[in-house]
Specification:
binds zinc ion; elongated; Arc Repressor Mutant, subunit A; alpha+beta; 3 strands
Length: about 110
C-alpha cells in the first residue's frame, strides 16, 4: 500500500503541471493578453508592439519604454531594419504615444 501512495504522490503533480507547461512553452505567445515569454527576441517584441498599434506611429523612445528595453539603440537597430520592409512606414511624424514630432514607425494597413 505504501508503494502505491508514493506513486500517486509523484504521478498526480506531474499530471496537474503538464498542461500548464505546454501552455507557457508554446501555446500562448500569440495571445496579446498573456505576458510574452523571455525567449522572444527584441525584434519580435517590437514587431508585435507595432502590429498591436494597428497603424498608429510610435517612436523609438516609446518602444523602448513600453518594452522596458535598457538601451534605446537596440530599438533603433530594429526599427531601421523594419523601415526597409514593405509592411512598415518609417518617417518623421507625430508619435501616436508621446505626440513628439520625430522619426516613428507604423504598420501599413
Ligand atoms: Zn513617442
Amino acid at each position: 500500500m505504501r508503494k502505491i501512495g508514493w506513486a500517486l504522490a509523484y504521478a498526480v503533480p506531474a499530471i496537474v503541471t503538464s498542461p500548464a507547461a505546454c501552455h507557457f512553452a508554446s501555446c500562448s505567445y500569440r495571445d496579446y493578453d498573456v505576458p510574452m515569454p523571455r525567449r522572444m527576441t527584441i525584434a519580435g517584441q517590437i514587431e508585435q508592439l507595432i502590429g498591436n498599434l494597428g497603424g498608429s506611429p510610435i517612436c523609438d523612445d516609446c518602444i523602448t519604454d513600453q518594452l522596458n528595453l535598457s538601451v534605446r539603440s537596440q530599438t533603433n537597430v530594429v526599427t531601421r531594419e523594419l523601415g526597409h520592409r514593405d509592411e512598415y512606414d518609417r518617417a518623421k511624424t507625430s508619435c501616436g504615444q508621446c505626440g513628439a514630432l520625430k522619426t516613428a514607425i507604423q504598420i501599413r494597413k
